[in-house]
Protein backbone atom coordinates (compact mmCIF):
# COMPACT_ATOMS: atom_id res chain seq x y z
CA UNK A 1 0.00 0.00 0.00
CA UNK A 2 2.72 2.62 0.77
CA UNK A 3 4.41 2.04 -2.60
CA UNK A 4 1.11 2.78 -4.42
CA UNK A 5 0.81 6.15 -2.66
CA UNK A 6 4.41 7.02 -3.57
CA UNK A 7 3.79 6.10 -7.22
CA UNK A 8 0.66 8.26 -7.27
CA UNK A 9 2.48 11.38 -6.05
CA UNK A 10 5.43 10.69 -8.38
CA UNK A 11 3.16 10.42 -11.43
CA UNK A 12 1.27 13.61 -10.45
CA UNK A 13 4.54 15.55 -10.18
CA UNK A 14 5.78 14.38 -13.59
CA UNK A 15 2.44 15.21 -15.25
CA UNK A 16 2.46 18.74 -13.74
CA UNK A 17 6.03 19.34 -14.94
CA UNK A 18 5.04 18.13 -18.38
CA UNK A 19 2.11 20.52 -18.56
CA UNK A 20 4.18 23.54 -17.49
CA UNK A 21 6.87 22.67 -20.02
CA UNK A 22 4.23 22.37 -22.75
CA UNK A 23 2.74 25.75 -21.89
CA UNK A 24 6.18 27.36 -21.99
CA UNK A 25 7.03 25.95 -25.41
CA UNK A 26 3.65 26.99 -26.76
CA UNK A 27 4.13 30.52 -25.50
CA UNK A 28 7.59 30.76 -27.05
CA UNK A 29 6.34 29.54 -30.44
CA UNK A 30 3.47 32.03 -30.38
CA UNK A 31 5.89 34.82 -29.57
CA UNK A 32 8.20 33.95 -32.47
CA UNK A 33 5.22 33.76 -34.81
CA UNK A 34 4.08 37.25 -33.77
CA UNK A 35 7.56 38.71 -34.29
CA UNK A 36 7.61 37.59 -37.96
CA UNK A 37 4.21 38.41 -39.46
CA UNK A 38 3.40 37.57 -43.06
CA UNK A 39 3.38 40.47 -45.52
CA UNK A 40 0.00 39.63 -46.87
CA UNK A 41 -1.79 39.81 -43.53
CA UNK A 42 -1.62 43.44 -42.57
CA UNK A 43 -4.70 44.82 -40.99
CA UNK A 44 -6.06 46.26 -37.85
CA UNK A 45 -8.15 43.24 -36.95
CA UNK A 46 -5.32 40.69 -37.05
CA UNK A 47 -3.15 42.93 -34.93
CA UNK A 48 -5.91 43.40 -32.38
CA UNK A 49 -6.51 39.70 -32.09
CA UNK A 50 -2.83 38.86 -31.53
CA UNK A 51 -2.00 41.84 -29.27
CA UNK A 52 -3.15 40.05 -26.09
CA UNK A 53 -1.68 36.69 -25.06
CA UNK A 54 -3.69 33.90 -23.56
CA UNK A 55 -4.41 33.47 -19.88
CA UNK A 56 -1.74 30.77 -19.60
CA UNK A 57 0.89 33.23 -20.83
CA UNK A 58 -0.20 35.73 -18.20
CA UNK A 59 0.22 33.16 -15.47
CA UNK A 60 3.73 32.21 -16.56
CA UNK A 61 4.93 35.76 -17.15
CA UNK A 62 3.46 37.06 -13.87
CA UNK A 63 5.20 34.28 -12.04
CA UNK A 64 8.47 35.27 -13.66
CA UNK A 65 8.14 38.99 -12.99
CA UNK A 66 6.95 38.64 -9.42
CA UNK A 67 9.41 35.87 -8.54
CA UNK A 68 11.85 36.60 -5.69
CA UNK A 69 15.57 36.97 -6.43
CA UNK A 70 16.43 33.58 -4.98
CA UNK A 71 15.56 30.30 -6.75
CA UNK A 72 12.98 28.09 -5.02
CA UNK A 73 14.13 24.71 -3.71
CA UNK A 74 11.59 22.68 -5.67
CA UNK A 75 12.44 19.92 -8.14
CA UNK A 76 9.77 20.83 -10.64
CA UNK A 77 11.06 24.41 -10.72
CA UNK A 78 14.28 23.43 -12.55
CA UNK A 79 12.62 22.48 -15.81
CA UNK A 80 10.35 25.51 -15.57
CA UNK A 81 13.29 27.84 -15.03
CA UNK A 82 15.30 26.35 -17.87
CA UNK A 83 12.40 26.62 -20.27
CA UNK A 84 11.79 30.23 -19.38
CA UNK A 85 15.45 31.21 -19.49
CA UNK A 86 15.64 30.24 -23.14
CA UNK A 87 13.37 33.17 -24.11
CA UNK A 88 14.96 36.50 -24.95
CA UNK A 89 14.21 39.63 -22.86
CA UNK A 90 12.45 41.17 -25.86
CA UNK A 91 10.13 38.19 -26.07
CA UNK A 92 9.43 38.37 -22.36
CA UNK A 93 8.53 42.02 -22.56
CA UNK A 94 6.42 41.50 -25.65
CA UNK A 95 4.43 38.70 -24.14
CA UNK A 96 3.65 40.58 -20.93
CA UNK A 97 0.24 42.32 -20.61
CA UNK A 98 0.99 46.00 -20.00
CA UNK A 99 -1.51 48.29 -18.31
CA UNK A 100 -2.54 51.23 -20.48
CA UNK A 101 -2.69 54.63 -18.78
CA UNK A 102 -4.28 57.78 -20.17
CA UNK A 103 -3.26 60.68 -17.90
CA UNK A 104 -5.01 63.30 -20.02
CA UNK A 105 -8.38 61.55 -19.91
CA UNK A 106 -10.79 62.17 -17.01
CA UNK A 107 -13.90 60.09 -17.27
CA UNK A 108 -15.65 61.86 -14.38
CA UNK A 109 -15.49 65.32 -15.95
CA UNK A 110 -14.37 66.72 -19.22
CA UNK A 111 -10.85 68.04 -19.33
CA UNK A 112 -12.16 71.30 -20.76
CA UNK A 113 -14.06 72.15 -17.58
CA UNK A 114 -12.21 74.53 -15.33
CA UNK A 115 -13.11 76.39 -12.18
CA UNK A 116 -13.01 79.91 -13.48
CA UNK A 117 -12.68 82.54 -10.79
CA UNK A 118 -15.37 85.19 -11.10
CA UNK A 119 -14.06 88.69 -11.78
CA UNK A 120 -16.21 90.06 -8.93
CA UNK A 121 -18.49 88.98 -6.12
CA UNK A 122 -21.40 90.44 -4.17
CA UNK A 123 -21.87 90.80 -0.42
CA UNK A 124 -24.04 92.86 1.87
CA UNK A 125 -24.27 94.43 5.29
CA UNK A 126 -27.53 95.13 7.08
CA UNK A 127 -27.58 98.39 9.01
CA UNK A 128 -31.11 98.13 10.38
CA UNK A 129 -31.97 96.23 13.58
CA UNK A 130 -33.62 92.79 13.44
CA UNK A 131 -36.85 92.91 11.49
CA UNK A 132 -39.64 92.80 14.06
CA UNK A 133 -43.19 94.00 13.45
CA UNK A 134 -44.88 95.23 16.60
CA UNK A 135 -48.60 94.77 17.07
CA UNK A 136 -51.28 92.97 15.12
CA UNK A 137 -51.42 93.08 11.31
CA UNK A 138 -54.23 95.63 11.48
CA UNK A 139 -52.38 98.10 13.72
CA UNK A 140 -48.70 97.45 12.99
CA UNK A 141 -46.72 100.16 11.20
CA UNK A 142 -44.28 97.63 9.72
CA UNK A 143 -40.52 97.41 9.98
CA UNK A 144 -37.59 99.10 8.27
CA UNK A 145 -34.93 97.24 6.30
CA UNK A 146 -31.81 99.11 5.24
CA UNK A 147 -28.30 98.11 4.32
CA UNK A 148 -25.56 98.25 1.73
CA UNK A 149 -24.81 95.94 -1.16
CA UNK A 150 -21.09 95.63 -1.93
CA UNK A 151 -19.65 94.79 -5.34
CA UNK A 152 -16.06 93.60 -4.90
CA UNK A 153 -14.06 93.95 -8.14
CA UNK A 154 -11.06 91.61 -8.35
CA UNK A 155 -9.67 92.78 -11.67
CA UNK A 156 -8.11 96.12 -12.46
CA UNK A 157 -11.09 97.29 -14.49
CA UNK A 158 -14.46 95.67 -15.03
CA UNK A 159 -17.41 97.01 -16.95
CA UNK A 160 -20.76 96.26 -15.34
CA UNK A 161 -23.88 96.62 -17.44
CA UNK A 162 -26.50 96.50 -14.67
CA UNK A 163 -26.98 95.77 -10.98
CA UNK A 164 -30.48 94.82 -9.86
CA UNK A 165 -31.70 93.72 -6.41
CA UNK A 166 -35.14 92.38 -5.49
CA UNK A 167 -36.94 91.50 -2.27
CA UNK A 168 -39.69 88.88 -2.59
CA UNK A 169 -41.89 86.78 -0.36
CA UNK A 170 -42.25 83.10 -1.20
CA UNK A 171 -45.18 80.99 0.01
CA UNK A 172 -44.66 77.23 -0.37
CA UNK A 173 -47.64 74.92 -0.02
CA UNK A 174 -46.50 71.51 1.21
CA UNK A 175 -49.93 70.06 0.37
CA UNK A 176 -50.71 71.96 -2.83
CA UNK A 177 -53.93 72.12 -4.79
CA UNK A 178 -52.55 69.77 -7.46
CA UNK A 179 -49.81 67.32 -6.64
CA UNK A 180 -46.57 67.54 -8.65
CA UNK A 181 -47.47 71.04 -9.89
CA UNK A 182 -44.73 73.60 -9.33
CA UNK A 183 -47.01 76.61 -9.81
CA UNK A 184 -49.55 75.31 -7.30
CA UNK A 185 -46.93 74.53 -4.67
CA UNK A 186 -44.97 77.81 -4.78
CA UNK A 187 -46.08 81.43 -5.15
CA UNK A 188 -43.56 84.27 -5.40
CA UNK A 189 -44.59 87.90 -4.82
CA UNK A 190 -42.19 90.77 -5.40
CA UNK A 191 -42.16 93.41 -2.67
CA UNK A 192 -39.44 95.79 -3.83
CA UNK A 193 -37.04 96.12 -6.74
CA UNK A 194 -33.91 98.30 -6.84
CA UNK A 195 -32.11 99.27 -10.06
CA UNK A 196 -28.83 100.13 -8.39
CA UNK A 197 -26.97 100.55 -11.68
CA UNK A 198 -29.15 101.51 -14.61
CA UNK A 199 -26.47 102.15 -17.25
CA UNK A 200 -23.11 100.44 -17.96
CA UNK A 201 -20.22 101.64 -15.86
CA UNK A 202 -16.52 100.76 -15.81
CA UNK A 203 -15.43 100.09 -12.25
CA UNK A 204 -11.93 99.87 -10.87
CA UNK A 205 -10.55 97.26 -8.53
CA UNK A 206 -11.90 97.48 -5.00
CA UNK A 207 -15.18 97.56 -3.12
CA UNK A 208 -18.14 99.60 -4.34
CA UNK A 209 -21.18 100.12 -2.11
CA UNK A 210 -24.82 100.60 -3.12
CA UNK A 211 -27.30 101.51 -0.35
CA UNK A 212 -30.86 100.17 -0.31
CA UNK A 213 -33.84 100.49 2.03
CA UNK A 214 -37.48 99.45 2.15
CA UNK A 215 -40.42 99.63 4.55
CA UNK A 216 -42.10 96.27 5.12
CA UNK A 217 -45.78 96.90 5.66
CA UNK A 218 -47.41 95.71 8.84
CA UNK A 219 -49.91 93.35 7.21
CA UNK A 220 -47.17 91.11 5.80
CA UNK A 221 -46.85 87.71 7.51
CA UNK A 222 -43.89 86.62 9.58
CA UNK A 223 -41.43 83.94 8.55
CA UNK A 224 -42.67 80.43 9.36
CA UNK A 225 -42.10 76.78 8.52
CA UNK A 226 -45.02 74.44 9.29
CA UNK A 227 -46.11 71.02 8.01
CA UNK A 228 -48.65 72.71 5.72
CA UNK A 229 -47.10 75.96 4.54
CA UNK A 230 -43.82 77.83 4.76
CA UNK A 231 -43.25 81.57 4.28
CA UNK A 232 -39.82 83.04 3.58
CA UNK A 233 -38.38 86.38 2.46
CA UNK A 234 -35.74 86.22 -0.28
CA UNK A 235 -33.26 88.94 -1.16
CA UNK A 236 -31.58 88.47 -4.55
CA UNK A 237 -29.04 90.62 -6.37
CA UNK A 238 -27.60 90.15 -9.83
CA UNK A 239 -24.75 92.00 -11.50
CA UNK A 240 -24.19 91.60 -15.24
CA UNK A 241 -20.50 92.03 -16.16
CA UNK A 242 -19.39 92.77 -19.71
CA UNK A 243 -16.23 91.62 -21.44
CA UNK A 244 -15.11 92.15 -25.02
CA UNK A 245 -13.02 88.97 -25.18
CA UNK A 246 -15.42 86.34 -23.85
CA UNK A 247 -18.94 86.39 -22.37
CA UNK A 248 -19.09 86.34 -18.58
CA UNK A 249 -21.69 84.73 -16.39
CA UNK A 250 -23.87 86.97 -14.22
CA UNK A 251 -22.81 87.44 -10.61
CA UNK A 252 -25.62 86.45 -8.26
CA UNK A 253 -26.19 86.90 -4.55
CA UNK A 254 -29.03 85.34 -2.54
CA UNK A 255 -29.96 85.65 1.12
CA UNK A 256 -33.02 84.92 3.22
CA UNK A 257 -34.42 87.32 5.81
CA UNK A 258 -35.96 86.41 9.14
CA UNK A 259 -39.08 88.51 9.73
CA UNK A 260 -40.72 88.26 13.15
CA UNK A 261 -43.86 89.65 14.76
CA UNK A 262 -44.22 90.65 18.40
CA UNK A 263 -47.63 91.04 19.98
CA UNK A 264 -48.06 93.07 23.18
CA UNK A 265 -48.53 91.17 26.43
CA UNK A 266 -50.86 92.19 29.24
CA UNK A 267 -49.36 93.11 32.58
CA UNK A 268 -51.86 91.07 34.62
CA UNK A 269 -52.40 87.31 34.14
CA UNK A 270 -55.55 86.06 32.51
CA UNK A 271 -58.26 84.61 34.80
CA UNK A 272 -60.56 81.81 33.73
CA UNK A 273 -63.30 79.94 35.67
CA UNK A 274 -64.86 76.67 34.54
CA UNK A 275 -67.69 74.61 36.08
CA UNK A 276 -68.09 70.88 35.34
CA UNK A 277 -71.73 69.78 35.67
CA UNK A 278 -73.34 67.53 36.91
CA UNK A 279 -70.68 67.73 39.62
CA UNK A 280 -70.05 70.75 41.81
CA UNK A 281 -66.39 70.99 40.79
CA UNK A 282 -65.29 74.50 39.88
CA UNK A 283 -61.85 75.20 38.44
CA UNK A 284 -60.21 78.62 38.69
CA UNK A 285 -57.04 79.25 36.65
CA UNK A 286 -54.61 82.16 36.40
CA UNK A 287 -52.19 82.02 33.47
CA UNK A 288 -50.32 84.38 31.13
CA UNK A 289 -52.19 85.01 27.93
CA UNK A 290 -49.04 85.65 25.84
CA UNK A 291 -46.07 83.28 25.86
CA UNK A 292 -42.79 83.09 23.94
CA UNK A 293 -40.97 80.18 22.29
CA UNK A 294 -38.17 80.33 24.87
CA UNK A 295 -39.00 80.28 28.57
CA UNK A 296 -41.33 78.54 31.02
CA UNK A 297 -44.63 79.82 32.37
CA UNK A 298 -46.80 79.05 35.38
CA UNK A 299 -50.48 78.19 35.57
CA UNK A 300 -52.10 78.44 39.01
CA UNK A 301 -55.10 76.11 39.32
CA UNK A 302 -57.59 75.72 42.15
CA UNK A 303 -60.40 73.16 42.39
CA UNK A 304 -63.40 73.88 44.62
CA UNK A 305 -66.53 71.84 45.30
CA UNK A 306 -64.69 68.53 45.34
CA UNK A 307 -66.56 67.31 48.48
CA UNK A 308 -70.28 66.94 49.14
CA UNK A 309 -72.22 65.92 52.25
CA UNK A 310 -74.84 63.24 51.72
CA UNK A 311 -77.27 63.80 54.59
CA UNK A 312 -79.41 60.85 53.65
CA UNK A 313 -76.74 58.27 54.47
CA UNK A 314 -74.45 60.54 56.55
CA UNK A 315 -71.44 60.20 54.30
CA UNK A 316 -69.01 62.57 52.63
CA UNK A 317 -68.31 62.09 48.92
CA UNK A 318 -64.92 63.22 47.61
CA UNK A 319 -63.51 63.80 44.15
CA UNK A 320 -59.79 63.07 44.34
CA UNK A 321 -57.33 64.15 41.66
CA UNK A 322 -55.36 61.20 40.30
CA UNK A 323 -53.64 62.47 37.15
CA UNK A 324 -53.12 65.77 35.36
CA UNK A 325 -51.87 66.29 31.80
CA UNK A 326 -51.13 69.59 30.11
CA UNK A 327 -50.58 69.94 26.40
CA UNK A 328 -49.73 72.85 24.12
CA UNK A 329 -51.44 72.49 20.75
CA UNK A 330 -50.80 74.40 17.54
CA UNK A 331 -53.52 74.66 14.89
CA UNK A 332 -52.58 75.66 11.35
CA UNK A 333 -55.09 76.63 8.68
CA UNK A 334 -54.24 77.62 5.13
CA UNK A 335 -55.80 77.80 1.70
CA UNK A 336 -53.91 76.02 -1.07
CA UNK A 337 -54.62 78.17 -4.17
CA UNK A 338 -54.87 76.87 -7.70
CA UNK A 339 -52.53 78.02 -10.43
CA UNK A 340 -53.60 79.26 -13.86
CA UNK A 341 -53.79 75.79 -15.36
CA UNK A 342 -55.95 74.41 -12.54
CA UNK A 343 -58.10 77.51 -11.94
CA UNK A 344 -61.87 77.32 -12.65
CA UNK A 345 -62.95 77.71 -16.25
CA UNK A 346 -65.85 79.62 -17.74
CA UNK A 347 -69.02 77.55 -17.91
CA UNK A 348 -68.55 75.59 -14.71
CA UNK A 349 -71.02 75.79 -11.86
CA UNK A 350 -70.56 78.15 -8.95
CA UNK A 351 -69.79 75.30 -6.57
CA UNK A 352 -67.10 73.92 -8.86
CA UNK A 353 -65.56 77.36 -9.30
CA UNK A 354 -65.50 77.94 -5.55
CA UNK A 355 -63.93 74.54 -4.98
CA UNK A 356 -61.28 75.07 -7.65
CA UNK A 357 -60.18 78.45 -6.29
CA UNK A 358 -58.47 76.76 -3.39
CA UNK A 359 -58.61 73.94 -0.87
CA UNK A 360 -58.64 74.61 2.86
CA UNK A 361 -55.98 72.64 4.71
CA UNK A 362 -55.76 72.32 8.49
CA UNK A 363 -53.48 70.51 10.88
CA UNK A 364 -53.11 70.29 14.66
CA UNK A 365 -49.91 69.20 16.35
CA UNK A 366 -48.55 69.05 19.89
CA UNK A 367 -45.56 71.29 20.65
CA UNK A 368 -45.37 70.62 24.42
CA UNK A 369 -46.75 67.97 26.76
CA UNK A 370 -46.29 66.56 30.25
CA UNK A 371 -48.18 64.27 32.64
CA UNK A 372 -48.20 64.71 36.43
CA UNK A 373 -49.25 62.17 39.05
CA UNK A 374 -48.37 64.29 42.08
CA UNK A 375 -47.27 67.78 43.01
CA UNK A 376 -50.55 69.34 44.19
CA UNK A 377 -51.88 70.22 47.62
CA UNK A 378 -55.22 68.76 48.70
CA UNK A 379 -57.37 69.43 51.76
CA UNK A 380 -60.34 67.18 52.59
CA UNK A 381 -61.04 68.28 56.18
CA UNK A 382 -64.72 69.09 55.63
CA UNK A 383 -67.33 69.18 52.93
CA UNK A 384 -67.17 72.96 52.60
CA UNK A 385 -63.43 73.59 52.89
CA UNK A 386 -62.07 70.83 50.63
CA UNK A 387 -59.84 72.25 47.89
CA UNK A 388 -57.01 71.21 45.57
CA UNK A 389 -54.31 73.72 44.63
CA UNK A 390 -51.39 73.35 42.27
CA UNK A 391 -48.98 75.38 40.19
CA UNK A 392 -47.69 73.74 37.04
CA UNK A 393 -44.97 74.99 34.74
CA UNK A 394 -45.40 74.55 31.02
CA UNK A 395 -43.24 75.41 28.06
CA UNK A 396 -42.51 74.35 24.52
CA UNK A 397 -40.60 71.17 23.82
CA UNK A 398 -36.90 71.49 23.25
CA UNK A 399 -36.99 70.36 19.62
CA UNK A 400 -40.41 71.75 18.72
CA UNK A 401 -40.51 73.69 15.44
CA UNK A 402 -43.33 76.03 16.31
CA UNK A 403 -44.77 79.01 14.46
CA UNK A 404 -45.98 82.20 16.08
CA UNK A 405 -49.58 83.33 15.98
CA UNK A 406 -50.45 85.00 12.71
CA UNK A 407 -53.37 85.74 10.43
CA UNK A 408 -52.54 86.85 6.90
CA UNK A 409 -54.67 88.07 4.02
CA UNK A 410 -54.13 84.93 1.94
CA UNK A 411 -55.96 82.77 4.49
CA UNK A 412 -53.02 81.45 6.51
CA UNK A 413 -53.80 81.36 10.23
CA UNK A 414 -51.84 79.94 13.15
CA UNK A 415 -53.30 79.71 16.67
CA UNK A 416 -52.35 78.03 19.95
CA UNK A 417 -54.13 76.77 23.01
CA UNK A 418 -53.23 75.20 26.34
CA UNK A 419 -55.22 72.08 27.14
CA UNK A 420 -55.40 70.77 30.73
CA UNK A 421 -56.89 67.33 31.34
CA UNK A 422 -57.58 66.01 34.85
CA UNK A 423 -58.68 62.53 35.90
CA UNK A 424 -60.67 62.42 39.17
CA UNK A 425 -62.15 59.42 41.01
CA UNK A 426 -65.02 59.40 43.50
CA UNK A 427 -64.58 58.15 47.08
CA UNK A 428 -66.79 58.24 50.17
CA UNK A 429 -66.33 57.94 53.92
CA UNK A 430 -68.63 58.08 56.97
CA UNK A 431 -69.04 61.47 58.59
CA UNK A 432 -67.88 60.28 61.99
CA UNK A 433 -65.00 58.21 60.53
CA UNK A 434 -63.44 60.15 57.62
CA UNK A 435 -60.39 57.87 57.56
CA UNK A 436 -62.44 54.89 56.36
CA UNK A 437 -62.30 55.78 52.66
CA UNK A 438 -64.04 53.55 50.13
CA UNK A 439 -63.68 53.76 46.35
CA UNK A 440 -66.90 53.89 44.39
CA UNK A 441 -65.32 53.05 41.04
CA UNK A 442 -66.71 56.19 39.42
CA UNK A 443 -64.32 58.48 37.58
CA UNK A 444 -64.49 61.52 35.35
CA UNK A 445 -62.20 63.33 32.93
CA UNK A 446 -62.21 67.11 33.21
CA UNK A 447 -60.85 69.09 30.25
CA UNK A 448 -60.12 72.78 29.99
CA UNK A 449 -58.86 74.79 27.02
CA UNK A 450 -57.11 78.12 27.46
CA UNK A 451 -56.46 80.36 24.50
CA UNK A 452 -52.78 81.27 24.29
CA UNK A 453 -50.85 83.60 22.01
CA UNK A 454 -47.36 82.49 20.99
CA UNK A 455 -45.21 85.37 19.79
CA UNK A 456 -41.62 86.53 19.65
CA UNK A 457 -40.09 88.72 22.31
CA UNK A 458 -40.33 92.38 21.50
CA UNK A 459 -36.88 93.49 22.62
CA UNK A 460 -37.12 97.24 23.19
CA UNK A 461 -40.76 97.01 22.13
CA UNK A 462 -40.79 100.26 20.14
CA UNK A 463 -41.63 100.43 16.46
CA UNK A 464 -39.66 102.53 14.03
CA UNK A 465 -42.23 105.36 13.93
CA UNK A 466 -42.21 105.78 17.72
CA UNK A 467 -38.46 105.94 18.13
CA UNK A 468 -37.08 109.24 19.44
CA UNK A 469 -33.88 110.80 18.09
CA UNK A 470 -30.76 110.23 20.22
CA UNK A 471 -30.04 112.64 23.08
CA UNK A 472 -26.42 113.12 24.07
CA UNK A 473 -25.13 114.05 27.49
CA UNK A 474 -24.61 117.78 28.25
CA UNK A 475 -26.34 118.77 25.01
CA UNK A 476 -29.67 120.61 25.24
CA UNK A 477 -32.58 119.28 23.20
CA UNK A 478 -32.68 122.46 21.05
CA UNK A 479 -29.95 124.58 19.42
CA UNK A 480 -28.45 127.36 21.59
CA UNK A 481 -29.93 130.83 21.28
CA UNK A 482 -27.51 133.47 19.96
CA UNK A 483 -27.97 137.00 21.37
CA UNK A 484 -27.50 140.21 19.42
CA UNK A 485 -24.42 141.11 21.41
CA UNK A 486 -22.69 137.87 20.52
CA UNK A 487 -23.37 138.27 16.82
CA UNK A 488 -22.56 141.98 16.51
CA UNK A 489 -19.68 142.04 18.94
CA UNK A 490 -21.26 144.19 21.63
CA UNK A 491 -22.20 147.73 20.50
CA UNK A 492 -20.64 147.42 17.05
CA UNK A 493 -22.83 147.68 14.00
CA UNK A 494 -22.64 145.79 10.72
CA UNK A 495 -20.69 148.63 9.10
CA UNK A 496 -17.95 148.27 11.70
CA UNK A 497 -17.49 144.57 10.96
CA UNK A 498 -17.93 144.31 7.20
CA UNK A 499 -14.92 145.41 5.21
CA UNK A 500 -15.60 147.85 2.33
CA UNK A 501 -15.10 146.74 -1.26
CA UNK A 502 -12.21 149.20 -1.96
CA UNK A 503 -10.15 147.13 0.41
CA UNK A 504 -10.16 144.33 -2.17
CA UNK A 505 -9.03 146.56 -5.07
CA UNK A 506 -5.84 147.56 -3.31
CA UNK A 507 -7.06 150.38 -1.12
CA UNK A 508 -6.56 150.60 2.56
CA UNK A 509 -9.08 148.50 4.45
CA UNK A 510 -11.43 150.51 6.55
CA UNK A 511 -11.63 149.56 10.24
CA UNK A 512 -13.34 151.65 12.76
CA UNK A 513 -11.47 151.58 16.03
CA UNK A 514 -13.11 149.40 18.55
CA UNK A 515 -11.91 148.48 21.95
CA UNK A 516 -13.48 145.05 21.76
CA UNK A 517 -11.58 144.06 18.60
CA UNK A 518 -8.07 142.72 19.32
CA UNK A 519 -5.12 144.43 17.69
CA UNK A 520 -3.70 141.13 16.61
CA UNK A 521 -6.83 140.37 14.62
CA UNK A 522 -6.69 143.74 12.77
CA UNK A 523 -3.02 143.28 11.99
CA UNK A 524 -3.49 139.77 10.68
CA UNK A 525 -6.40 140.74 8.48
CA UNK A 526 -4.61 143.74 6.99
CA UNK A 527 -1.47 141.75 6.29
CA UNK A 528 -3.52 139.02 4.67
CA UNK A 529 -5.15 141.49 2.35
Automatic annotation (TrEMBL):
Residues 21-30 have a biased composition (Polar residues). Gene3D superfamilies: 2.60.40.640. InterPro entries: Arrestin-like_C (IPR014752), LDB19_N (IPR024391). It comes from the Eukaryota. It holds the Pfam family LDB19. Residues 1-99, 505-529 are annotated as: Disordered. Residues 167-343 form the LDB19 N-terminal domain. Residues 520-529 have a biased composition (Basic and acidic residues). Transmembrane segments: none annotated. This is LDB19 N-terminal domain-containing protein. It comes from Podospora australis.
Amino acid sequence: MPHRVANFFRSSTHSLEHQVSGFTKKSASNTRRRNSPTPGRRGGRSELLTAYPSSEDDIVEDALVNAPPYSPRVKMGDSRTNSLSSDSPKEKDHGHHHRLSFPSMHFGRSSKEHHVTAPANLSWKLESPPIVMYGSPETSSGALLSGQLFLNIREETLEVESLIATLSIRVTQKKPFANHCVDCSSQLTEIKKWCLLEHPLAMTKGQHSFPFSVLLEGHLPATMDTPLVSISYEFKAEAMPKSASSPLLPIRFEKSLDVKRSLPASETPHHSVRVFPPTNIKASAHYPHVIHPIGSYTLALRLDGIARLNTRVQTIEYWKLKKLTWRLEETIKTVAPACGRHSPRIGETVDDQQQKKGIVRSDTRVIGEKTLFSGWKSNYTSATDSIVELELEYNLSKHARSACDTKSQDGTEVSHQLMVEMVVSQEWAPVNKPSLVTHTGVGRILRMHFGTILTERGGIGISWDNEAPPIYQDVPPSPPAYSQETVMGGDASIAEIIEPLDGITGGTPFHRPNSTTPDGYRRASSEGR
